[in-house]
Amino acid sequence: MNHEESLAEIFEYYGKQLNPSQQDNIVAMLREIQDLLGCVPEGVQAQAANAVGTKESVIRLLVQRFPSLRSASYQHRIIVCSGQRCGSKNAAQVLSFLRKELEIDPEGYSKDKTIFLSTQNCLKQCGKGPNLLLDGVLHSAMTPEKAKQLLCNLKK
Ligand code: FES
To answer: Does residue 131 have its Cβ closer than 6 Å to ligand 1?
Structure first.
């Protein structure tokens, strides 16, 4: 079975569930798509939305929000907390350091496309902030120096 046939099968299966547009169902579908293709490509998101009767913007948002999902086959994902409490502890400095260091483009990709950077409003660990998630793992009390160290470790 080629990828297109497998995708069609996934769309059909999740489109037939009792409440296809429910978040759990959509996320399960997106996970399967990612298992198949390595990511949930932007080109597939409209079809996925169609299959479960939701908007493409909903799919895009879910791909952005779930750390385990991604829209391109980058190698690492960094999510910097943009919540108020992290903000009061200089999270913005960490974010601007990462943006500059990685030469992040307007879509969030590093210059070499290996890292995807985004923000999320409150990672629910406010006391430990500023926080970021690197590939789903929480790193707390971040500073630009610590962020630099994390990037160095990624290259090893
Ligand atoms: S504001 Fe950053 S974890 Fe809550």
So the answer is: yes
CA distances from 124 to 16, 120, 128, 151 (A): 35, 10, 9, 23
* Topology classification of domain 76-155: Glutaredoxin (3.40.30)
**C-alpha distances in angstroms, 58 versus 63, 80, 150?**
9, 21, 31
Establish whether residue 126 lines the binding site of ligand 1, counting it when its CB lies within 6 angstroms of any ligand atom.
yes
- Tell me, in angstroms, the distance from the centre of ligand 1 to residue 34's CA: 28
Q: Is the pTM of this model over 0.90?
A: no
* pLDDT tens per residue, range 117-150: 999 999 999 999 999 999 889 999 999 999 999 9
